[in-house]
Amino acid sequence: MKHYYFVLFLYLFISCTTKKEKQMLTSGIDFSRVDSTIRPQDDFYKHVNGKWLKEFELPEDKSRYATFTILREKSREDVKKIIEKASESNSRKGSDNQKIGDLYHSYMDTSLLEKLGVKSIREELQKIDQIKNISDLSGYFAYADIYTTAPFGIYVYIDKKNPDEHITYLSQSGLGLPNRGYYFEKDTKSKKIRKEYLDHIEKMFELTGLENGDANAKVIMDLETEIAGYHWKKEKNRDPELTYNLVSLSELKNMIPGFKWDNWLNQTLMKDFDKIVLNQSDYLKNVSELIISTPIDSWKIYFKWALINRTAGLLNSTLEKQNFYFYRTVLSGVKKMEPRWKRGVSVVSGRLGEIIGKVYVEKHFNQDAKDRMLDLVENLREAYRLSIDDLDWMGDSTKAQAQIKLEKFRPKVGFPNEWKDYSSLSIERKDLVGNIKRSTLDRTIKNREKLGKPIDREEWGMTPQTVNAYYSPLLNEIVFPAAILQPPFFNMDADDAVNYGAIGAVIGHEMGHGFDDKGSKYDGNGELRNWWTDSDRKKFEERTKKLIDQYNGYTVVDGTPVNGEFTQGENIGDLAGIVIAYKAYQLSKKGKDAPEIDGLSGDQRFFYGWATIWGSKSTDEQLIRQIKTDPHSPGEFRANGPLVSMPEFINLYKVKKGDGMYINPDAVSYTHLTLPTNREV
Question: Phi, psi (5° rounding) for residue 304?
Fold first, then answer.
């Protein structure tokens, strides 16, 4: 009888468990976004997101609203609660809660900010007025590099040629517009922006109470235009070999004769260094005559503008609104400022990121999600390994090096093992400008103190509350903060298919950066060196050229083309991500058929998951700005662009000539390590 009851219990337990598992099994697809009037084989992106694209109204305080935005807004709401709780407590001076609460209060105390206005930067303006000669100016170049901007700036980071050590880098800088193209492009919109920029500078000087706003605006525009003329184009800056130019300190000093380098060095907050890497080899030489020949008074006007421009959002509402008008309305098409609390939350999260992150993780991070993510990473790694082995265009020696690099990929998920120390940072309740200045100084000192110290491989480049991910070629690591581990990127309650199509493809994307046009120049230890044979590199670049041509053919507002060369790294990442994620998904099934859920097969759910995460609406101005400044392609091309190259998608939806998703097989971008060399049509 006991045996009978045991068997009965076991039967009921298994039945209930199986039933529960079936009940929990969901597709994870948001069908409210789907436009069934658009065929998948004509425009898969609009098929999956079309109803949302038609019905969703872009908020007036946004230039772009995407799947990432949904989670970022949620993260900001979560962070707000953390900040408000800290603000309510009567915390000890110097404690985490005191710093959080008082920084937020200093931003939100608008009555005090209106009262103080430009007085908050009076000492900094006086500091600029005290510049009398080239010696003073040389020192101020370094000072401005820390707090505002200067024609060139320095930072300490891992040495690309020796990734076990830090080194100092020097890079072009000093522009008020997003990049050099804004100063020279001759289309009507660009000309209008330059006119608006001149007007904006003039108004900002007037609102600050400084005289000669119109004349000052012309001085600044002329000077910035000359600086921009020496800047490297964004496409050239993508090459990690071209941007590594090691020189000695004495060679650096010879590049701008007459510049008082010792005065500059004294203001850098660094101990003397004997070598430095120039990110742009000829920039200093080219800009040197301008630096020396420009009158001191013109540089003073330039630096006053840099100060006003950088602090405008920290002063009174009049300056803040004018600053918003140009940088957000003119450049990005935003009609309305976000509520002040949102801006305040962003300031606190940006300045005290890991203090916030520590609490965020305690409240919102799921350890089970981390474990499942790590499993996904290893499945993606295995898919990569098999794909590299199967390549028919890559030689054995290059394959061996690629496999070594793949094996050394280090995943970081959720949050850092060691938290940053903010104990040296002082935050005052009634001193917003001072808080930002001290925070900037604290961050700068910590960066520059790294010189001569071991590499901290536990340090994170993003906070846990950040909805994003990244790959670091110098550390050969892929990083996924806690906040991205949520639907629609990652759904613990969904069938595997949608997770592989979404977060799996994001994982694959970040891994893909290890083998894109830039990442492929670093080895598994993070060293910038050539581990390819000349023949294999040539074949890779031939395939990359097809990808560049493909994306050059995509256009946005008024026929503005996507820059295939500038976006190639991210496009390779997207292509790699979806291809490898699909392969990993197939491996995860272990030869079994995926169930049909919500009328969709496993493969269909996989591709739906992929297209969903790129859903995005933007203002026309933002789309154009994205094309000019952002290495990521617009969402619709991130979704559709890789799919036209995938035999699995082509065959699943029976894409044929004449369909919107059809591309001539001869033009297919078999670029990445993961792609086959032919496909069925």
Answer: -65, -40
